[in-house]
Queue: 4 jobs
Job 1
Amino acid sequence: MPTARRARPDRNSATDATRSGRSRITLLSLWRSRRAARDRKVSPLPSQPELPQPLQRLKKIQRWSAVTAVVAIALAVVAYGQTVQIQNAWSSDYKRLQTLQRQERDLRVALEVLKDQVARQAEAADSTLQPPSPKQLIFLRPSGETVTPGRSPNVPAALPPLVGDGNAPADPKPIGY
């Protein structure tokens, strides 16, 4: 809202205003005119004539198509955001998978190196490694089997034959570890 500016009094301004017959604008007169404008009632606009039926249908179609367009744009933005998020998650998971695969390869190489070292130590002439004997092995029963009294759970019911039988291998080895 513009504010009233006071005119600078010139030498001839007072005499010019009285000579021309114009009155001076004062703050009081501005305030009174604004108050009068504020107090006036605003008359309502005349109502518009009703549109024909085909135009009303077109107007409704336009409103609904605008709403549909806004919803479609919102869904497209959400779908795009989900796509970007999924791609970022997939990318980070794929990098993690590659890191784990590289670590797995390194561990496999290290395991094979250790196996090779143990095999070389076992084949060496000064090695103290010996194949396990059946008395050093621990045998576990299946969970459904009951304990027979008078027998140690670590000794099998029948020991495999030692060396010398024709149907037994020369080096007895356990079935599994």
Note: The longest helix spans residues 53-123.
Job 2
Amino acid sequence: MPREYTEAEALAIHHDYWESNRPDAAEGMEVPELVRWSEGDSLEAAACIREQGFEQYAMGLDGSIGGSAPTDAQRARSEVVEWECWAKFSLPLQWIAPRTEELWRLEYDYYVDFYLPCMKEWGIDLYRDDIPSEDVWVAQSMEGQVDLWLPYDLLHNPPVSDHRPKGLTDDELAWLCPSMPPPVLSVSGG
């Protein structure tokens, strides 16, 4: 069962999370006020990004956004716009709240026991020899290591469209095999 937060606690977590994820180009800017927590999808954030002139679109119920890459000249502005829009239509509180060792272990288990086998079942083999052990991954996660192994990162090089089975859209694949665990797994009472 997810931990219950007061509104003040939730807003403080929101502020701290987006403050710590501020792109360099947004230095000095205030963290945008929360408009609404997302339910794990990216529809409102994607619409917000499009309204600012960037051709982004929602990909799936896992919170991911995909779309056309900005030009080098647009990159800094794109990073600011994405940060502002995601802060306004934030990832679920359960995904951004501080995690315990137990929650990191649940996430690792989700990737290894559900996500990787699900993707393989649909013809996309993301298994690699360099997947860290659970203990190593949890330790790296708790230390805040930035180059953390995440299985869905392998989909972006080459893009998921190069991997997916014929006839299956990116949205369908994201629905069948969400790359993020359900929010209910991410924060518990305590």
Note: The mean pLDDT is 79.
Job 3
Amino acid sequence: MARDILTDLAFENVHKCLGIPDWNESDEVILVSLANKEQIEADKNYRSTENCNYFGKRICIFCEQVKKNNYITLHKSMLEKIIKTMESFKDAEQMKGEEND
């Protein structure tokens, strides 16, 4: 499950969101159930830009792995740690694949 969420984060181009200059360490990302996507998009607090989706001030990412009517909130520092872990995991898988060739 964790690996799937990391994949979703990667596909959402979170690295672009991290580059937003006014995004503070205390700011959050909200991972929302994909089953609630229509409901969230219809909410007046939801907005979408070229780089990100937002729910209020939070960056909003839809994930299949989050159960319906649930969400997960992450602070920027935790998100950065997850992305670093994902990158090192990806590098390790690539090295393992090269060894098997």
Note: The longest helix spans residues 76-100.
Job 4
Amino acid sequence: MLPFIRKDLAELNAYTPHPGSASGESVPSKSAIDRLDTNECPYDLPAELKQKLAWNYQQLIETNRYPDGGHAPLKEAIAQYVNESIAESIHVPPLSKGGLHVPPLSKEGLDVPPLSKEGLDVPPLSKEGLDVPPLSKEGLDVPPLSKGGLDVPPLSKEGLDVPPLSKGGLNVPPLSKGGLHVPPLSKGGLGGVLPPKTAITADNISVGNGSDELIRSLLIATCLGAVGSILVANPTFSMYGIIAQTLGIPVVSVPRQPETFEMDIEEAKKAISQTENPPVRVVFVVHPNSPTANALTTNEIEWLSSLPEDILVVIDEAYFEFSQNTLAGKLQEHPNWIILRTFSKAFRLASMRVGYAIANPELTAALEKIRLPYNLPTFSQLAAEFALAQRQLLLAVIPETISERAKLIAAIAQHQQLQIWPSAANFVYLRVKAENRNLAEQQHKQIMEQLKAEGTLIRHTGGGLRITVGSPQENQRTCDRLSQILT
């Protein structure tokens, strides 16, 4: 090892990259690859939205210019969405031991049209790949959708009818009268409804190159220089510990309850009281947790509320759109809380790397000082703004995901040698029933490799197997292949 590199880095295990293998080699399979190992949405952006993004990239983005380092338009759009999510959040009680406890959407909730008998209206791929018409001399030659498709403004003779950018920022074309109506935040409030005085504003938002950058910035702001250590309850998202270790920050780990995966609060209390030099300064939780898919319980939330103000509580809501249960409405009561969210899951922008934090303005101001000055490319900012403007369209697949999740759990539960838990996310978690943990882990690895050979990628993590809820076809193949392996 080169002498100028920190010696402790030799002990660090890096995050295992996609596609689900330590070496990153291609996956041997005779059939299509079902990528169910990274909790992404199974559907790409609609073709119409990608075409509008392409038009903006070609005509309006100057690649020789630095991105907007202030993110002002994007922060405003995020703040509006967060306020909506607080207003429409469903109070979801903790999952009972008896199984799934998912209440139906109320009339005030997501207004999602039912799926047709044929399923989601997703354009099929051509033999050559994505069926994208070639560019004409005038611009993108994209025929308008039929009456049965998405209500997108028709193209003009010259190409996509997208007006130039206004001085106020990126120009996201509004939907037509027949499309989705998302009322902007007026001075009077959200969609004509007076907001509380505690409404989230752009000052409460910080944007990062994925949530990973925000996690790193938080650790620099709170723990760097032997000032503090972090507390995590394993199994959980591994990047908290990995990023902390890269910065030389100690990681204190506590267990979870084996039956429910609720954090062992007594052990957490003991760890905080006994950890010194440096003391615990940050507690990381995921709501719902990855890889175990359980939402925070009332007991856990009450404990987090009781922590002193010199401990930062990081609540990762990467899967909020699937649980519809957020703690963002409690931020005003807890200045030492911060919520992280991402565009990589429900919003289908994993390749764009856009994450955001919601917190007290003093904390977001500190994050703004620490982050890199041009941390988010112009195209990523544009894609996030487009996604928010058309959020009802993109989030319309969530009822299908929730329905498929229930089917996947029911199918896997038929195998007596497997134990599967309820889920509040877009993935499920299971373990092999075995005499000891080492034997179970051997079988987990064997199942993962056998599924991989058949074309299904899943994640072996946290002492079990995590499977992303994919499309109906992908989920059926997962069930079929798993049955072949286990019988």
Note: The CA atoms of residues 229 and 280 lie 5 Å apart.
